[in-house]
Amino acid sequence: PLCTPGCGVPPAWAARLGATGFLISKCCFPLFKAKPGKAKRVRTIFSSEQLARLEQEFARQQYLVGQERCLLASSLHLTEEQVKVWFQNRRIKWRKQSLEQQQAKLAKMGLATPQR
């Protein structure tokens, strides 16, 4: 089989991926067939349920490590790596939004801030 049960890739997708020449690595990331020695990882598409739960956990705490990450990944049928990267990306988005809000407040008060 291309993928193990509970790895996060629905069986129908795994079958379709195999039929179209895709491969699934140990951590269940689909890979494009590319030039020998080169492989490009396909972007993970999260379900709305997975995103809601990830956002809920992020609102509770911005850093998720160890057993908490393992349990969340397992409950969402994702890999720990997928959860780790989602949290990294979400922290970047949060920082960017916070900076934009601060700049908007300062601009509203007539104070300019240097752009980074």
TrEMBL record:
Keywords from the named record: Developmental protein, DNA-binding, Homeobox, Nucleus, Repressor, Transcription, Transcription regulation
GO terms under cellular component: nucleus
Subcellular localization, as worded in the UniProt entry: Nucleus
GO biological process: central nervous system development; neuron differentiation; notochord formation
Residues annotated as domain Homeobox: 37-97
Ranges of the DNA-binding region feature: 39-98
Leader sequence segment: none
InterPro entries xrefs: EMX-VAX-Noto_Homeobox_TFs (IPR050877), HD (IPR001356), HD_metazoa (IPR020479), Homeobox_CS (IPR017970), Homeodomain-like_sf (IPR009057)
Domain of life: Eukaryota
The UniProt record lists the keyword Lipid biosynthesis: no
Keyword Lyase included in the entry's annotation: no
A GO molecular-function descriptor: DNA-binding transcription factor activity, RNA polymerase II-specific
Protein name from the UniProt record: NOT2 protein
Organism: Notiomystis cincta
